[in-house]
Amino acid sequence: xxxxxxxxxxxxxxxxxxxxxxxxxxxxxxxxxxxxxxxxxxxxxxxxxxxxxxxxxxxxxxxxxxxxxxxxxxxxxxxxxxxxxxxxxxxxxxxxxxxxxxxxxxxxxxxxxxxxxxxxxxx
Length: 123
What we know:
single chain, disordered N terminus
């Protein structure tokens, strides 16, 4: 039995969602195969496909939320939750990967030079 049999959603909407859901869940953080990062820097095919799947799911959620089939809407919300979790982790990795370590000695020297260049009140 189909998830949506005569409850208002067309087969093409169901198929579109199933494809988008498959792409999103392929990168689910809990699955063993998705431990690697999305390919952000090179061609962008993987990340583009991922973002397209998210967009497709969001668009379909708007269309499907007015219908009575709550199972497919629940699956769509779940897929979006997985995507948000994955994107949060990816963003964290980008931030960590581009963090420059703080050179405390250099910072101290800069602060000291600045404080010496300002006259002290009453002097």
